[in-house]
Amino acid sequence: MKKILFLQIKGNFLGGIWYVDKSLGEEFLNRGYDVAILGIRNNHPGLEIKDTPLKITTINTTDIWEITHRRDVLNKVGRRGFFKTLNKYFADYKKLNDDYVVMKKMISEYNPDYIIATHYQTLKGIPDQYLNRTIFVQHSSFNYLLDDKNNVRTLKRLNDKINSLCWLCESTMNRAIDFGFKKNKYIYNPNKFLTNLKADVVKNKKIVVVTRIHAEKRIDLMIDIVNEVFKNPKFKDWVFEIYGVGSFNRNSEQILKHSNQIIYKGLTDNAEKVLMNASLTLNTSVFEGFSLSIIESFSCGLPVIAFNFGESAHEQIINDYNGYVIENDNVSEFKEKLEYLLSNEDKLLEMSCNAKEFSSKFEIDRIADQWEKVFEQVEEENAKS
């Protein structure tokens, strides 16, 4: 039985990378592979993931993933704060090296046929003899990668040793090639759920967003845009629901307090149900590596209006087919497209059908097939060496 090992920096972090690894891992289990996930540390003390048959192991369960970096030291103001942060940096550095020693031992004991590494920090913990079995997946846009100099240096240093670099879309891969990286490929992220149903987008009259409410998502801007559109009386029957955890700015808090049409619903554990009761969704992110929320929306037949969040935007959204990609900060055009879809039932329904059809390219079986071809290439290349 072939063994697949996923490597993460956080063993119990329920973010986008986790859901990708979980979806792929469970599909590989169903295909007869032995699959395990190895995390360096946890992120949420006491949180245990139980809703998966995958074997999940965390190397260091005492310390959480809050590593002090050199930039933290250099940016510290004041002598006392500087030396305090410097001491923490050296303590973290030693602990992390200890974690890597354990990591190398555990990988050797598991003896995987293929390693899928999803954070560059995990590459240091892979024994040299397993690097040619390692596919590193960069879960971000290329611009975001370039902002992390440690990430770039690590990938440059190991590019000749690891089997390949895997990017989330063709556009990002092409940028990597132009940059000088070798052994590149791209595979889209899979949808984490599959449904044969499609939302009744005309009847529902509801905009939804299911997201992390963080600064880069610009949910406050989204609220402001929808609030302006809803001032038109012809949209009085529409509502906008926000699902997720985070905080809003003062203006958004006032809108949420006084509006009957814009509602903060908090966290949901059933995104599929939320999307099936909606008509369309929005994305105002500054950047995305590859938006899982968009392909989940398409799976339920929801068109998406988004700002241009990076290389994958135009590969996920086809303008005037399953949604619209608006150039960043062009708020007036974003409002215009939103008003158009809310006013035009025929276009909304047409885009809904297109979105549902388009979603098939992200189905887990198709994505897993592409990964199995990568595994075959790993076997062929290592057989030659």
Provide an overview of this structure.
The protein has 385 residues and is an alpha/beta fold. It has two domains: 205 residues, Glycogen Phosphorylase B (Rossmann fold, 3-Layer(aba) Sandwich); 162 residues, Rossmann fold (3-Layer(aba) Sandwich). Helix content is 44%, strand content 18%. A seven-stranded parallel beta sheet has the order 3-2-1-4-5-6-7, with helices on both faces. Strands 10-9-8-11-12-13 form a six-stranded parallel beta sheet, with helices on both faces. Helix 9 links the parallel strand 9 and strand 10. The longest helix is centred in the first third of the chain and has 32 residues. The protein is globular, with a radius of gyration of 22 Å. The two termini are 22 Å apart.
Sequence-ordered SSE layout with sheet pairings:
Layout: E1 3-10, H1 16-30, E2 34-42, E3 55-64, H2 70-74, H3 79-110, E4 114-117, E5 134-137, H4 142-147, H5 149-158, E6 164-167, H6 170-179, E7 184-186, H7 201-204, E8 206-210, H8 219-230, E9 239-243, H9 250-258, E10 262-266, H10 271-276, E11 280-283, H11 292-299, E12 304-307, H12 313-316, E13 323-326, H13 331-343, H14 345-358, H15 364-384
Parallel strand pairs: 1-2, 1-4, 2-3, 4-5, 5-6, 6-7, 8-9, 8-11, 9-10, 11-12, 12-13
